[in-house]
Amino acid sequence: MEVEFIGYVPAGTRESAIDLPRIREGVRRHEEAGYDTVLIGYGPDSPDPFQVAAYAAAHSSRIRMLLAHRAGVVFPTVAARMIASLDHFTGGRISLNLVPGGTLDTHPRQDGDYLSKDERYARTGEYLRVLKAAWTSPTAFSHHGEHYRFDDYEPHVRPLQRPWVPLYVAGSSPAAQAVAGAHADCYACYGEPLARTAEVVSSVRAEAARAGRSTAPCFVARFTVVLGEDDDHARERARQHVRRAGAPVDPGILNNEGNRRLKAAASAAEHHDRALWTVPIGSWGSVLNALVGSPRTVADALLDYVRLGVTGFRISGISEPEDTVAIGRELIPLVRSAAAGRGPGAG
Protein backbone atom coordinates (compact mmCIF):
# COMPACT_ATOMS: atom_id res chain seq x y z
CA MET A 1 0.00 0.00 0.00
CA GLU A 2 1.23 3.47 -0.90
CA VAL A 3 1.37 6.00 1.95
CA GLU A 4 1.63 9.73 1.21
CA PHE A 5 3.68 11.95 3.52
CA ILE A 6 2.82 15.64 3.33
CA GLY A 7 4.96 18.36 4.89
CA TYR A 8 4.53 22.11 5.05
CA VAL A 9 6.64 24.88 3.56
CA PRO A 10 5.88 28.34 4.99
CA ALA A 11 6.30 31.18 2.54
CA GLY A 12 7.63 33.69 5.04
CA THR A 13 8.29 34.71 8.61
CA ARG A 14 6.81 37.15 11.09
CA GLU A 15 9.24 39.75 9.81
CA SER A 16 8.66 39.14 6.09
CA ALA A 17 5.59 37.66 4.40
CA ILE A 18 7.76 36.32 1.57
CA ASP A 19 11.12 34.72 2.32
CA LEU A 20 12.57 33.21 -0.84
CA PRO A 21 15.51 31.38 0.80
CA ARG A 22 13.12 29.81 3.31
CA ILE A 23 10.89 28.52 0.51
CA ARG A 24 13.85 27.14 -1.45
CA GLU A 25 15.45 25.48 1.55
CA GLY A 26 12.15 24.16 2.87
CA VAL A 27 11.04 22.45 -0.32
CA ARG A 28 14.50 20.96 -0.92
CA ARG A 29 14.72 19.72 2.67
CA HIS A 30 11.38 17.93 2.41
CA GLU A 31 12.30 16.46 -0.96
CA GLU A 32 15.61 15.14 0.36
CA ALA A 33 13.86 13.77 3.46
CA GLY A 34 11.58 11.61 1.33
CA TYR A 35 8.29 13.45 1.70
CA ASP A 36 5.93 13.06 -1.25
CA THR A 37 4.22 16.44 -1.04
CA VAL A 38 4.42 19.84 0.64
CA LEU A 39 1.41 21.94 1.54
CA ILE A 40 1.41 25.55 0.36
CA GLY A 41 -0.83 27.53 2.70
CA TYR A 42 -3.61 30.00 1.97
CA GLY A 43 -4.84 32.91 4.05
CA PRO A 44 -5.45 36.66 4.08
CA ASP A 45 -1.99 37.13 5.60
CA SER A 46 -0.21 34.82 3.14
CA PRO A 47 1.22 35.37 -0.35
CA ASP A 48 -0.52 33.87 -3.37
CA PRO A 49 -0.08 30.07 -3.14
CA PHE A 50 0.02 29.72 -6.94
CA GLN A 51 3.12 31.90 -7.08
CA VAL A 52 4.70 30.19 -4.08
CA ALA A 53 4.08 26.76 -5.62
CA ALA A 54 5.57 27.81 -8.95
CA TYR A 55 8.68 29.11 -7.19
CA ALA A 56 8.99 25.99 -5.03
CA ALA A 57 8.57 23.72 -8.04
CA ALA A 58 11.31 25.58 -9.89
CA HIS A 59 13.69 24.77 -7.02
CA SER A 60 12.83 21.08 -6.71
CA SER A 61 12.58 18.12 -9.04
CA ARG A 62 10.27 15.44 -7.62
CA ILE A 63 8.13 16.61 -4.72
CA ARG A 64 4.50 17.58 -5.29
CA MET A 65 2.81 20.87 -4.31
CA LEU A 66 -0.54 20.75 -2.50
CA LEU A 67 -2.07 24.21 -2.91
CA ALA A 68 -4.54 25.36 -0.29
CA HIS A 69 -7.33 27.12 -2.18
CA ARG A 70 -10.64 28.72 -1.18
CA ALA A 71 -13.53 28.41 -3.61
CA GLY A 72 -15.20 31.74 -4.22
CA VAL A 73 -12.12 33.92 -4.37
CA VAL A 74 -11.64 33.20 -8.09
CA PHE A 75 -14.36 32.31 -10.60
CA PRO A 76 -14.12 28.54 -11.25
CA THR A 77 -13.49 28.70 -15.00
CA VAL A 78 -10.66 31.17 -14.39
CA ALA A 79 -9.30 28.95 -11.61
CA ALA A 80 -9.49 25.93 -13.92
CA ARG A 81 -7.16 27.62 -16.41
CA MET A 82 -4.82 28.84 -13.66
CA ILE A 83 -4.53 25.39 -12.10
CA ALA A 84 -4.18 23.58 -15.43
CA SER A 85 -1.47 25.99 -16.56
CA LEU A 86 0.48 25.57 -13.32
CA ASP A 87 0.15 21.80 -13.62
CA HIS A 88 1.94 21.93 -16.97
CA PHE A 89 4.61 24.35 -15.76
CA THR A 90 5.42 22.09 -12.79
CA GLY A 91 5.49 18.87 -14.78
CA GLY A 92 2.28 17.50 -13.29
CA ARG A 93 3.22 18.06 -9.65
CA ILE A 94 0.15 19.99 -8.49
CA SER A 95 -2.70 18.94 -6.19
CA LEU A 96 -5.46 21.22 -4.89
CA ASN A 97 -6.59 21.39 -1.25
CA LEU A 98 -10.00 23.07 -0.95
CA VAL A 99 -10.41 24.81 2.43
CA PRO A 100 -13.99 26.15 2.61
CA GLY A 101 -14.02 26.34 6.41
CA GLY A 102 -11.07 27.91 8.14
CA THR A 103 -9.41 28.43 11.48
CA LEU A 104 -11.08 31.81 12.03
CA ASP A 105 -14.50 32.94 10.82
CA THR A 106 -13.02 36.36 10.07
CA HIS A 107 -10.62 35.04 7.41
CA PRO A 108 -13.17 34.62 4.56
CA ARG A 109 -14.65 38.05 5.27
CA GLN A 110 -11.25 39.67 4.78
CA ASP A 111 -11.51 38.59 1.15
CA GLY A 112 -15.13 39.72 0.82
CA ASP A 113 -16.75 36.32 1.49
CA TYR A 114 -19.75 36.62 3.84
CA LEU A 115 -21.34 33.22 3.30
CA SER A 116 -21.83 30.95 6.31
CA LYS A 117 -19.54 27.95 6.62
CA ASP A 118 -22.21 25.51 5.42
CA GLU A 119 -22.95 27.80 2.47
CA ARG A 120 -19.25 27.89 1.62
CA TYR A 121 -19.13 24.10 1.58
CA ALA A 122 -22.21 23.97 -0.68
CA ARG A 123 -20.53 26.46 -2.99
CA THR A 124 -17.37 24.33 -2.95
CA GLY A 125 -19.34 21.34 -4.22
CA GLU A 126 -20.61 23.39 -7.15
CA TYR A 127 -17.12 24.82 -7.69
CA LEU A 128 -15.64 21.33 -7.93
CA ARG A 129 -18.28 20.24 -10.42
CA VAL A 130 -17.40 23.20 -12.63
CA LEU A 131 -13.64 22.56 -12.32
CA LYS A 132 -14.02 18.95 -13.37
CA ALA A 133 -16.23 19.88 -16.32
CA ALA A 134 -13.79 22.59 -17.39
CA TRP A 135 -11.03 19.98 -17.46
CA THR A 136 -12.93 17.09 -19.05
CA SER A 137 -15.81 18.34 -21.21
CA PRO A 138 -15.17 17.55 -24.90
CA THR A 139 -17.26 20.52 -26.01
CA ALA A 140 -18.29 23.97 -24.83
CA PHE A 141 -20.77 23.93 -21.96
CA SER A 142 -22.93 26.25 -19.88
CA HIS A 143 -23.70 26.20 -16.17
CA HIS A 144 -26.57 27.82 -14.29
CA GLY A 145 -26.17 27.00 -10.61
CA GLU A 146 -26.87 28.53 -7.23
CA HIS A 147 -23.47 30.24 -6.96
CA TYR A 148 -22.11 30.33 -10.53
CA ARG A 149 -23.61 31.09 -13.91
CA PHE A 150 -21.93 31.20 -17.32
CA ASP A 151 -22.59 30.22 -20.93
CA ASP A 152 -20.64 28.52 -23.71
CA TYR A 153 -17.35 28.02 -21.88
CA GLU A 154 -14.81 26.41 -24.19
CA PRO A 155 -12.42 24.15 -22.24
CA HIS A 156 -9.20 24.50 -24.19
CA VAL A 157 -6.72 24.52 -21.26
CA ARG A 158 -6.56 21.11 -19.60
CA PRO A 159 -4.19 19.84 -16.89
CA LEU A 160 -1.20 17.66 -17.65
CA GLN A 161 -2.56 15.15 -15.14
CA ARG A 162 -5.66 13.39 -16.42
CA PRO A 163 -8.53 13.56 -15.95
CA TRP A 164 -7.76 16.36 -13.44
CA VAL A 165 -5.31 17.36 -10.75
CA PRO A 166 -5.90 15.47 -7.46
CA LEU A 167 -8.57 17.28 -5.45
CA TYR A 168 -8.48 17.32 -1.65
CA VAL A 169 -11.20 18.71 0.61
CA ALA A 170 -10.24 19.66 4.17
CA GLY A 171 -12.47 20.02 7.21
CA SER A 172 -14.05 18.15 10.10
CA SER A 173 -17.70 19.20 9.93
CA PRO A 174 -20.54 17.09 8.48
CA ALA A 175 -20.69 19.59 5.60
CA ALA A 176 -17.01 18.95 4.84
CA GLN A 177 -17.55 15.20 4.88
CA ALA A 178 -20.53 15.47 2.56
CA VAL A 179 -18.64 17.55 -0.02
CA ALA A 180 -15.55 15.35 0.21
CA GLY A 181 -17.59 12.18 -0.13
CA ALA A 182 -19.37 13.50 -3.20
CA HIS A 183 -16.53 15.24 -5.03
CA ALA A 184 -13.00 14.85 -3.59
CA ASP A 185 -10.19 12.48 -4.44
CA CYS A 186 -8.91 12.80 -0.85
CA TYR A 187 -10.43 13.96 2.43
CA ALA A 188 -8.14 15.70 4.93
CA CYS A 189 -8.80 16.37 8.62
CA TYR A 190 -7.09 16.49 12.01
CA GLY A 191 -5.82 13.20 13.39
CA GLU A 192 -8.10 12.02 16.21
CA PRO A 193 -8.18 8.91 18.41
CA LEU A 194 -8.56 5.68 16.47
CA ALA A 195 -12.19 5.02 17.37
CA ARG A 196 -13.27 8.45 16.22
CA THR A 197 -11.15 8.18 13.06
CA ALA A 198 -12.90 4.92 12.19
CA GLU A 199 -16.23 6.75 12.48
CA VAL A 200 -15.00 9.54 10.18
CA VAL A 201 -13.79 7.06 7.55
CA SER A 202 -17.14 5.27 7.68
CA SER A 203 -19.07 8.55 7.44
CA VAL A 204 -17.17 9.84 4.40
CA ARG A 205 -17.47 6.48 2.66
CA ALA A 206 -21.22 6.56 3.28
CA GLU A 207 -21.38 10.05 1.76
CA ALA A 208 -19.51 8.78 -1.30
CA ALA A 209 -21.95 5.89 -1.69
CA ARG A 210 -24.89 8.27 -1.24
CA ALA A 211 -23.48 10.38 -4.08
CA GLY A 212 -23.35 7.31 -6.31
CA ARG A 213 -19.57 6.99 -6.34
CA SER A 214 -18.05 3.54 -6.71
CA THR A 215 -14.78 4.63 -5.06
CA ALA A 216 -14.54 6.68 -1.87
CA PRO A 217 -11.90 9.38 -1.35
CA CYS A 218 -8.58 8.53 0.22
CA PHE A 219 -7.99 9.85 3.75
CA VAL A 220 -5.30 12.19 5.10
CA ALA A 221 -4.78 12.83 8.83
CA ARG A 222 -2.90 15.79 10.31
CA PHE A 223 -0.50 15.18 13.23
CA THR A 224 2.43 16.82 14.93
CA VAL A 225 5.18 14.22 15.41
CA VAL A 226 7.52 14.28 18.41
CA LEU A 227 10.33 11.74 18.06
CA GLY A 228 12.89 10.78 20.68
CA GLU A 229 15.65 8.25 21.23
CA ASP A 230 13.03 6.26 23.14
CA ASP A 231 9.46 6.86 24.30
CA ASP A 232 10.51 8.58 27.53
CA HIS A 233 12.81 10.98 25.70
CA ALA A 234 10.05 11.81 23.21
CA ARG A 235 7.55 12.51 26.00
CA GLU A 236 10.00 14.87 27.68
CA ARG A 237 10.51 16.71 24.38
CA ALA A 238 6.74 17.06 24.05
CA ARG A 239 6.37 18.38 27.61
CA GLN A 240 9.13 20.93 27.00
CA HIS A 241 7.38 22.08 23.83
CA VAL A 242 4.12 22.65 25.70
CA ARG A 243 5.91 24.54 28.48
CA ARG A 244 7.62 26.80 25.95
CA ALA A 245 4.24 27.65 24.42
CA GLY A 246 3.07 29.05 27.76
CA ALA A 247 0.00 28.42 29.87
CA PRO A 248 -2.97 27.40 27.71
CA VAL A 249 -5.62 30.07 27.28
CA ASP A 250 -8.86 29.73 25.35
CA PRO A 251 -10.11 33.10 24.11
CA GLY A 252 -12.84 31.38 22.11
CA ILE A 253 -11.63 32.48 18.68
CA LEU A 254 -10.76 29.03 17.28
CA ASN A 255 -14.31 27.80 16.83
CA ASN A 256 -13.97 25.51 13.83
CA GLU A 257 -15.24 21.95 14.12
CA GLY A 258 -11.77 20.39 13.98
CA ASN A 259 -10.54 22.32 17.00
CA ARG A 260 -13.75 21.58 18.90
CA ARG A 261 -13.24 17.88 18.29
CA LEU A 262 -9.64 18.01 19.50
CA LYS A 263 -10.75 19.89 22.63
CA ALA A 264 -13.24 17.11 23.33
CA ALA A 265 -10.49 14.50 22.93
CA ALA A 266 -8.19 16.45 25.27
CA SER A 267 -10.98 16.78 27.85
CA ALA A 268 -11.58 13.04 27.76
CA ALA A 269 -7.93 12.06 28.18
CA GLU A 270 -4.42 13.31 27.55
CA HIS A 271 -3.15 10.03 26.14
CA HIS A 272 -4.97 7.94 23.54
CA ASP A 273 -4.26 4.63 21.89
CA ARG A 274 -0.64 3.77 21.21
CA ALA A 275 1.01 7.21 21.04
CA LEU A 276 -1.53 10.03 20.55
CA TRP A 277 -1.20 12.94 22.98
CA THR A 278 -3.89 15.65 23.03
CA VAL A 279 -3.22 18.67 25.22
CA PRO A 280 -4.31 22.35 25.18
CA ILE A 281 -1.44 24.58 24.16
CA GLY A 282 -0.68 28.29 23.84
CA SER A 283 -2.74 31.44 23.90
CA TRP A 284 -5.00 30.79 20.92
CA GLY A 285 -7.02 28.00 22.47
CA SER A 286 -5.60 25.32 20.19
CA VAL A 287 -4.95 21.68 21.02
CA LEU A 288 -1.75 19.82 20.19
CA ASN A 289 -2.54 16.45 18.62
CA ALA A 290 0.85 14.78 18.59
CA LEU A 291 2.11 11.27 18.04
CA VAL A 292 4.86 10.97 20.64
CA GLY A 293 7.46 8.23 20.95
CA SER A 294 10.44 6.52 19.43
CA PRO A 295 10.47 6.17 15.64
CA ARG A 296 9.24 2.59 16.01
CA THR A 297 6.40 3.57 18.34
CA VAL A 298 5.24 6.42 16.11
CA ALA A 299 5.55 4.26 12.98
CA ASP A 300 3.35 1.62 14.61
CA ALA A 301 0.87 4.32 15.58
CA LEU A 302 0.68 5.58 12.00
CA LEU A 303 0.21 2.03 10.78
CA ASP A 304 -2.78 1.70 13.13
CA TYR A 305 -4.36 4.53 11.12
CA VAL A 306 -3.35 2.91 7.83
CA ARG A 307 -5.30 -0.18 8.86
CA LEU A 308 -8.37 2.01 9.30
CA GLY A 309 -8.03 3.30 5.74
CA VAL A 310 -5.89 6.42 6.23
CA THR A 311 -3.26 6.49 3.50
CA GLY A 312 -1.87 10.01 3.86
CA PHE A 313 -0.32 11.93 6.74
CA ARG A 314 0.23 15.66 6.96
CA ILE A 315 2.99 15.70 9.56
CA SER A 316 5.50 18.15 10.98
CA GLY A 317 7.79 18.29 13.99
CA ILE A 318 8.30 20.79 16.79
CA SER A 319 11.84 21.87 15.92
CA GLU A 320 12.73 22.80 12.37
CA PRO A 321 14.71 21.99 10.34
CA GLU A 322 16.00 19.16 12.53
CA ASP A 323 12.68 17.35 12.87
CA THR A 324 11.97 17.28 9.14
CA VAL A 325 15.33 15.59 8.62
CA ALA A 326 14.74 13.14 11.49
CA ILE A 327 11.25 12.24 10.28
CA GLY A 328 12.64 11.52 6.82
CA ARG A 329 15.57 9.51 8.13
CA GLU A 330 13.98 7.59 11.00
CA LEU A 331 10.19 7.46 10.55
CA ILE A 332 9.13 7.52 6.91
CA PRO A 333 11.20 4.46 5.87
CA LEU A 334 9.72 2.39 8.71
CA VAL A 335 6.16 3.21 7.68
CA ARG A 336 6.79 2.67 3.99
CA SER A 337 8.45 -0.68 4.57
CA ALA A 338 5.67 -1.97 6.82
CA ALA A 339 2.89 -0.62 4.58
CA ALA A 340 4.48 -2.47 1.67
CA GLY A 341 4.57 -5.65 3.76
CA ARG A 342 8.34 -5.75 4.08
CA GLY A 343 9.07 -4.87 7.71
CA PRO A 344 7.93 -4.96 11.35
CA GLY A 345 4.36 -3.81 11.79
CA ALA A 346 3.25 -5.16 8.41
CA GLY A 347 -0.10 -6.85 8.19
Helix fraction, binned, reads 40-55%
**Helix and strand element order:** EHEHEHEHHEEEHEHEHHEEEHEH
What is the CATH topology classification name? TIM Barrel
The helix-and-strand class reads: alpha/beta
Quaternary class: single chain
Poorly predicted tracts of residues = none
- Identify the CATH architecture: Alpha-Beta Barrel
What integer is the average pLDDT? 93
Radius of gyration over all CA atoms, rounded: 20 Å
CATH level 1 class label: Alpha Beta
Morphology: globular
Question: Largest beta sheet: what is the strand line-up?
Answer: 1-2-3-4-7-8-9-13
Annotation field: number of helices: 11
Biggest pleated sheet: 8 strands, parallel, barrel
Give the count of structural domains: 1
- Number-wise, the strands total 13
Give the termini distance in whole angstroms.
11 Å
What this model shows, in words?
The chain is α/β, with parallel strands linked by helices. The protein has a single domain, classed as Luciferase-like domain (TIM Barrel). The chain is built from eleven helices and 13 strands. The protein has an eight-stranded parallel barrel, surrounded by eight helices. The chain has a two-stranded antiparallel sheet with strand order 5-6. The protein starts with a strand and ends in an 8-residue tail after the last helix. The mean pLDDT is 93. Its EC number is 1.14.14.5. It comes from Saccharothrix algeriensis.
